[in-house]
Amino acid sequence: MSVTAASGFVAAGIAAGIKASGRPDLALVATADGRPVPSAGVFTRNRMTAAPVITTRAHLEATAGHSTAVVLNSGNANAATGEQGVADAEAMCAAVATALGTTAESVLVCSTGLIGIPMPIDVITAGIPALVAARSADGGAAAATAIMTTDTHPKEVVVTGDGFVVGGMAKGAAMLSPNMATMLAVLTTDARATPEQLKAALVAGVADSFNVLDVDGCTSTNDTVLLFASGAAGPVDQSALDSAVAAACRDLAEQMCGDAEGATKVVRFSVTGATDDAQALTGARYVSRSNLVKCSWYGCDPYWGRIASDLGSCGIDFDPARLSVSYGGVVVCRGALDAEHDDAAVAAHMAGRHLEIVADLGLGSGTATILTNDLSHAYIDENMGTS
User: Which of 32, 168, 317, 363 is deepest in the core (most CB within 10 A)?
Assistant: First the structure.
């Protein structure tokens, strides 16, 4: 169990026929009793906003943050589809509402897949009765599988708090860049909380997880993270809820980073010693999006010169004489000069799956970390076309 680990939730995932491959492509997460519960969401900042995002925002506003279910499809993003796209998103919600015996506004909707292609809405609505009928407390894994696109495996998480649980699922393998990193995530908890408390926990949790995930610098039209609370476990301390939600978000973000298209390395790249945190973040994002740097990581090459060059050109305060760079805790550059170091230790670190790289600017107390990965041939192979 993952998204259904928290008491009071059911889920399902089926193959409705959206994907030509016949793989699962339609998912549902709902309250077990069919009643709306407090809920909240955070969404893409891309102004090319997909119809499901528009619809879900409107439904959360109309219900003051109370939802019964979310229906999710993969294989079609329902983005750049105009007024028909919004009508299709509403139709998905209405079909689920009818099957569950609730209102359409209490149903949220998410879509992921190719942009600019009309939704096969008749196929989707025809599959919704079977989807709703399949819901169960053991349906989390099926739901997590049904939202996959180029993901190689489902992404699930369970975090146990003090007397309560946060469970979740996510998808995402490319177009991963703030804010947020193409991704969908659904979290549930049995803690009792208001929509305002859930929104606060979600905003804080996303800030240090999905919003610091930067794989390819591309921000999706559909990014959505939702959080539902059944209240079955009773009230909990807000800080405990915040911590559990943040832990779930971090875990899912790391899973997405590790499964990014073609990735062979999961990289935590940090800038420390910047003039302030904002400059540190600018530098960390700039380096993490550098194809030259990412290729060196793929080649297991601790080529710190590329990092130094990017930090010196990204517009932040920079003094080469103060720069140091370390790989796996081993300093390889000091004062923008090659530093004597243990080559074998660095090589062993670079050969691993997880890399920890720190560039210290030596100018102040500003720090930032970006979760990213390497760039391999497989990323190009995956993204050469739409089919």
Answer: 168
Structural domain includes residue 300: yes
Q: Ramachandran region of residue 380, left (φ > 0), alpha (ψ -120 to 50) or beta? A: alpha
DSSP symbols for 64-125:
TSEESEEEEEESB---S-HHHHHHHHHHHHHHHHHHHTS-GGGEEEEEES-SS----HHHHH
Question: Of 230, 258, 286, which one is at a domain's C-terminal end?
Answer: 258
**In this predicted model, which residue has the larger pLDDT, 7 or 253?**
7
Mean pLDDT of the chain: 91
Q: Are residues 230 and 368 in the same domain?
A: no
Q: Report the domain count for the chain.
A: 2
Continuous segment of H or E residues that includes residue 319: none
Catalytic annotation present for 182: yes
Question: Residue 84 carries which side chain, given as an amino acid letter?
Answer: Q
71-97 exposure pattern, b = at least 16 Cβ within 10 A, e = fewer? bbbbbbbbbebeeebbebbbbbbbbbb
Question: Do residues 105 and 36 touch, judged by C-beta distance below 8 A?
Answer: no
Alpha-carbon Rg for the chain, nearest whole angstrom, is: 22
Asked if residue 134 and residue 65 are part of one domain, the reply reads yes
Q: Domain range holding 358? A: 266-382
Region of residue 220 (phi > 0: left; psi between -120 and 50: alpha; otherwise: beta): beta
> Do 37 and 196 contact (CB within 8 A), yes or no?
no
* Residue (of 167, 165, 38) closest to 108 by Cα position: 38
Q: By the 8 A CB rule, do 204 and 216 touch?
A: no
What type of residue sits at position 387?
A: S
Q: pLDDT band at residue 214, thresholds of 50, 70 and 90?
A: confident
Task: Report the alpha-carbon distance of residue 291 to residue 216 in Å, rounded.
Answer: 9
Of 88 and 253, the one with more pLDDT? 88
Q: Name the β-bridge partners of 67.
A: 37
Q: Which of 63, 145, 182, 367 is catalytic?
A: 182
Task: Give the span between the Cα atoms of 256 and 252, in whole angstroms.
Answer: 6
Q: Is the CB of residue 164 less than 8 Å from the CB of residue 147?
A: no
Question: Cβ of 67: how many Cβ atoms within 10 Å?
Answer: 26
Backbone angles phi, psi at 20, to 5 degrees: -65, -25
- Residue bearing tokens 């601790």: 302
For residue 182, give both structure tokens. 């193409």
